[in-house]
Design brief:
Helix content of chain B: over 70%
Radius of gyration of chain A: 18 Å
Radius of gyration of chain B: 63 Å
Number of helices of chain A: 12
Number of domains of chain A: 1
Shape of chain A: globular
CATH superfamily of chain A: P-loop containing nucleotide triphosphate hydrolases
Oligomer: heterodimer
Number of strands of chain B: 5
Largest interface: A-B, 43 and 31 residues
Shape of chain B: rod-shaped
Distance between the termini of chain A: 61 Å
Order of helices and strands of chain A: HHEHHEHEHHHEEHHEHEHE
Number of strands of chain A: 8
CATH topology of chain A: Rossmann fold
Strand content of chain B: 5-15%
CATH class of chain A: Alpha Beta
CATH architecture of chain A: 3-Layer(aba) Sandwich
Chain lengths: 273, 521
């Protein structure tokens, strides 16, 4: 009975939500063979200028660095294929390593893979960035979803570029929470992730985690992911920090590797081309 | 270091070039402002030359042998004393505007302002000819010239004083030496005289004479002995003859001395009886004397009548008495000669000893005399030397050019200071960047991960500049390029556009001045 009521509330909420952002909804959504939740999500129209401003290059692919992001995506994709993984935590030792930017770039890059359903979740609950980058405002914050107080359709929005063949759903936080670590390692969060996997059947779930050395938020969520990627910023992150975080991640989950971000030293010398 | 490392460091440096530029600019501006805020410095210079002696050395020599350059260095030390520098600073108000300076600071600053320099002259290496320049730097041309002149005058005075003093000292020394030797000589001469006086009979130079005298006396002695012997023979002969004849003619009854004296006194009494009264004590004394003598004479007559009897003085007695008298005189003479001979022998024996003493005395005298002579000669030279110095005919320092107030300040060190500041700025800038990178323990490139942590990066994402960053950078680069272009260009334009105008204006002025001169003329 109580479940019924909850379900009803969710539907009612969803209708309110849909009507409120009806101007962004793409009416000509070709419903392919995918879980029904995808078609129920709101569409977010993405402003290319905003992307340019926020260093999101995988959206228009005009920047030379988009190649290296695609390469990273492919590497991750291969690892997922090999190990049958679906969730990847994106961590960094300190703030400002470009973690959220890289997440969004990666997400767009993944969304270009046909048959790939990608979900991007911003779990940097204290200082969420992804919503700001993409201009997501009217969704339910992810905290609500993790607590089980909101449904997927209200928490997630679809925002793949028009050229993409895959699907991309994004959820973000609003930064108004005090008990992040507790929430992240709570049973409800685990259940929420399970529900997400069940309803959206994603191939790739990108989780943007808070900086590792500031608090224990990231560590507490690591049990919910299959593998982890460490983003470090060139000329900002110290070697000792990398060492600590690497050990931490390798001990808690499958450590995929270190991504050196913001490298101003042009990569040509390393034979990437 | 591989080429990729080089590229890496180059890119690293290039991205921190703003630090280098900023620091360089800051330090350069500070340095340049400082350099241009320095007051202008005027330098007045006197030039001196050390001349060689003006008289040929063979004829007359100065007694001052310190070379001009050494002399100059000694004088320089004297001038650079704290006291002298302080006096100069006070006298010429070198620091008039700034009061409350520490004395040590003033001395240090003054010492830095005074510049002694040797002028290079094309002379043979052994020549004593040398040139010096004395400069003084000050903020005002007049002060610079005044102080330089004062120092020059000090040098000349000091040099003259030193040389004359030195010549004086030499002269005084030889005067003293001559005086000493003179005294010694007098002393020795006195000693010699005393000795000669004391041993005047036993001096070596009269030895020959004395030997002759000795021989003569000895001969005389022998002669006397012969005479004596002959007299004795004659006497004994006479006695024998007398004894043989027996007939003796009477012996002359001679008057005894008392008798003679009695007769004399009686004569005196008879003479005086007419003059003096009988009661006169002289008369009575005479009378009593006569009475006494009469008694003596009477007793003598009686005695003689008994002894001789009737014998008379004969001719023989007279002859014998004569011979005896002669013998007595010979005896006397012989003893005299013996004494003389004894004396002579003594003096002759003493002569060699005296000769040794005398020789040594004379040798000393001769030595001192030699010294005295040479001292006199040197004294004469010293006198000449002093006269040479007093009349400035010796080696001397003379002014070629006296310091005058300079028209233009010294080409200052401003440019050097400014260039130094720029260089220091660049070095500081690079040093700062180097320090920054040495202290920076962050990861900078994929290789660092491999090197420090032995992790190959999973991926490397190059820096993605946002649009605003790109625009900002382009603006910055554009501005710098524009500035880098405009500054030399504007300098070029100013130089070529305004310099001709300046000289043109000057030309007009000079022509106008010329024209007015001609009109006035």
């Amino acid at each position: 009975m109580s479940k019924m009521v909850e379900r009803m509330q969710v539907i009612v909420g969803k209708q309110d939500f849909v009507s409120s952002i009806s101007n962004t909804v793409d009416a000509t959504d070709a419903t392919r063979d995918c879980p029904g939740a995808w078609s129920d999500m709101t569409w977010l129209k993405i402003d290319p200028k905003r992307m340019q401003k926020h260093r999101i290059i995988s959206f228009s692919r005009s920047h030379s660095a988009s190649a290296s992001i695609d390469m990273l995506r492919t590497n991750i994709w291969h690892a997922f294929q090999c190990h049958k993984w679906t969730t990847i935590a994106v961590c960094s030792p300190a703030p400002n390593c470009g973690k959220s930017t890289l997440c969004v770039n990666l997400a767009f890059s993944f969304s270009r893979l046909s048959e790939c359903r990608t979900v991007l979740i911003d779990l940097d609950l204290r200082r969420p960035q992804i919503g700001r980058i993409l201009g997501l405002k009217e969704l339910d914050p992810i905290e609500k979803f993790l607590k089980g107080e909101s449904c997927i359709e209200r928490s997630f929005a679809r925002c793949e570029p028009s050229s993409a063949e895959g699907k991309l759903a994004v959820a973000t936080a609003n930064g108004e929470i005090n008990t992040c670590a507790e929430l992240l390692q709570s049973e409800s969060a685990k259940r929420a992730i399970g529900r997400l996997k069940q309803e959206l059947q994603p191939h790739v779930v990108l989780v943007d985690l808070p900086p590792m050395l500031s608090n224990d938020d990231a560590l507490s969520f690591l049990s919910n992911v299959d593998c982890a990627l460490l983003i470090v910023a060139a000329e900002e992150t110290q070697i000792a920090q990398i060492d600590v975080c690497e050990r931490e991640l390798a001990g808690k989950t499958n450590f995929l590797g270190v991504v050196l971000n913001k490298c101003r030293y042009s990569p040509e010398a390393y034979g990437y081309y | 270091m591989s080429s990729s490392d080089l590229r890496f460091y180059w890119s690293l440096m290039w991205r921190r070039v703003h630090y280098v530029m900023g620091i360089t600019l800051l330090v350069s501006i500070v340095g340049i402002v400082f350099a241009w805020s320095l007051p202008p410095v005027y330098r007045a210079t006197s030039r001196l030359i050390i001349e060689t002696a003006q008289m040929p050395e063979q004829l007359a020599r100065s007694t001052v042998s310190v070379s001009g350059i050494e002399q100059m260095q000694i004088i320089e030390q004297k001038i650079m004393t704290n006291e002298n520098l302080l006096n100069l600073a006070r006298k010429f108000n070198v620091y008039e505007s700034k009061n409350g300076h520490l004395e040590s600071d003033i001395v240090e600053d003054m010492a830095a302002r005074v510049i002694f320099a040797q002028i290079r002259l094309e002379v043979p290496p052994n020549s004593a000819l040398a040139g010096f320049s004395i400069s003084f730097e000050a903020e005002e041309p007049g002060v610079a010239a005044d102080v330089a002149q004062a120092i020059t005058t000090q040098i000349l005075d000091e040099n003259t004083k030193r040389r004359v003093d030195s010549a004086d000292d030499t002269l005084r020394f030889f005067e003293g030496s001559v005086k000493n030797l003179d005294g010694e000589l007098n002393l020795l001469e006195g000693e010699l005289l005393t000795f000669k006086k004391a041993n005047k009979d036993a001096l070596p130079d009269s030895l020959a004479y004395r030997r002759n005298e000795q021989a003569r006396q000895q001969e005389r002695l022998a002669q006397l002995e012969r005479e004596e012997a002959s007299l004795r023979d004659r006497r004994s002969g006479l006695v024998r003859i007398y004894d043989g004849t027996e007939a003796v003619v009477g012996i002359n009854q001679s008057l005894t001395p008392e008798g003679e004296m009695l007769q004399q006194l009686r004569r005196t009494l008879a003479e005086k009886q007419g003059i003096y009264a009988d009661e006169n004590p002289n008369m009575s004394a005479l009378r009593s004397q006569i009475e006494h003598l009469e008694e003596t004479v009477a007793s003598q007559r009686a005695g003689r009548k008994n002894a001789v009897g009737n014998k008379r003085y004969s001719e023989l007695d007279i002859q014998l008495a004569e011979i005896d008298a002669r013998l007595t005189s010979i005896k006397q003479e012989r003893s005299d000669i013996a004494a003389v001979l004894k004396d002579l022998k003594q003096t002759i024996l003493a002569t060699p000893e005296n000769e040794i003493v005398l020789t040594s005395l004379e040798r000393r005298h001769k030595n001192i005399q030699t010294q005295y002579d040479s001292a006199i000669a040197r004294l004469a030279e010293a006198t000449t030397g002093k006269q040479i110095e007093q009349r400035f005919k010796g080696e001397r320092i003379s002014i070629i050019e006296m310091a005058t107030p300079p028209d233009k300040p010294v080409p200052s060190k401003r440019l050097k200071i400014a260039a130094g500041a720029v260089a220091v700025g660049i070095i500081l800038g690079f040093g700062f960047v180097l320090l920054l990178e040495l202290l920076n323990r962050t990861i900078r490139r994929p290789t660092d991960l491999v090197n420090y942590l032995e992790i190959r990066p999973f991926a490397t994402i190059q820096y993605i500049a946002s649009r605003s960053e790109v625009i900002a950078r382009r603006l910055a680069v554009g501005t710098i390029l524009f500035a880098a272009l405009m500054v030399p260009l504007s300098a070029f334009v100013i130089y070529y556009q305004f310099e001709p105008i300046g000289s043109f204006v000057e030309g007009i002025f000079s022509r106008m001045a010329q024209a007015s001169h001609e009109q006035n003329g």
